[in-house]
Amino acid sequence: MKQARHPVPGDMTLIEVMAALSDPIRVGLVRVLADGCERGWGELRAPVAKSTLSHHLRVLRDAGLTYTRQEGTRCFVTLRRADLDGRFPGLLGAVLAIADRDDVGGQVGIADDSAVAAPGRPARGQVRSA
Asked: What average pLDDT does this structure show over 2-31?
């Protein structure tokens, strides 16, 4: 299997990062990964097909937002917070704060998430009912 491309921080561009963050599913993935934990691709839940989720993860990786590590046939992903903060100070924090406030990407979560939700808000990984 071929190695994933991970741009070095100096090669990350604001245009590519902002383009990657232009989709609510990708913002939701960043929100999930913002806890600093490495996640297996199979742990991530989004209301899209697996192939579409794979595409979204590739866009985030190619822009430099995430790092993907392969272990056998499994892939794991982490948010490159330190690299992003070093290259674009304050950007990730601002995006995450606004995304949390407006619940952008709130339909993305983690499988079997047992986090307790705040009153009136579903736990991350649970879909809000209409």
From this structure: 93
Convert the pLDDT of each residue in 55-65 to its tens digit. Answer: 999 999 999 99
Average pLDDT in the chain? 87
**Alpha-carbon gap, residue 50 to 77, rounded angstroms:** 15
Q: How far is CA 13 from the centre of its chain?
A: 18
pTM of the model: 0.83
SS (H, E, C) the chain: CCCCCCCCHHHCCHHHHHHHCCCHHHHHHHHHHCCCCCEEHHHEECCCCHHHHHHHHHHHHHHCCEEEEEECCEEEEEECHHHHHHHCCCHHHHHHHHHHHHCCCCCCEECCCCCCCCCCCCCCCCCCCC
Tokens of 47: 């209301």
- Between CA 61 and CA 29 the distance in angstroms is 11
Q: How confident is the model at residue 15 (pLDDT cuts 50, 70, 90)?
A: very high
